[in-house]
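Sequence in, structure out.
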Amino acid sequence: MDLTPLVPPGQQVIERYGPLGFRISGLIYREPIIVFPDRTIVWPQGAVDEAGLAAVVADGTVELLLLGLGRRIVPVSAALRLALKRGGVAVEPMDTGAACRTYNVLLAEGRRVSAALLPPG
């Protein structure tokens, strides 16, 4: 099902993902990224820690962070979960493919969502 028509113009839609990177609203990224509804940024080294995800909390609008961790799901540390929670952000770790698909669905629903994505490699 193509959700693109349900997403308001100007929003960042995840069009493709694979081992070599991502296509977000027509632009190619070959590194880990963080996708917000209004922009996409490079995720420095894909660091799954408070400093690496500081941009999500600093954004101030995100309620849910989908954490796409490649092909394997690993637990999020209690310290990171707590740091994000203090910033008003819930976190859901999942494989990257699931994070991409879920992000697009939640974006189409108008949710305040972000996705931090490692290429599935």
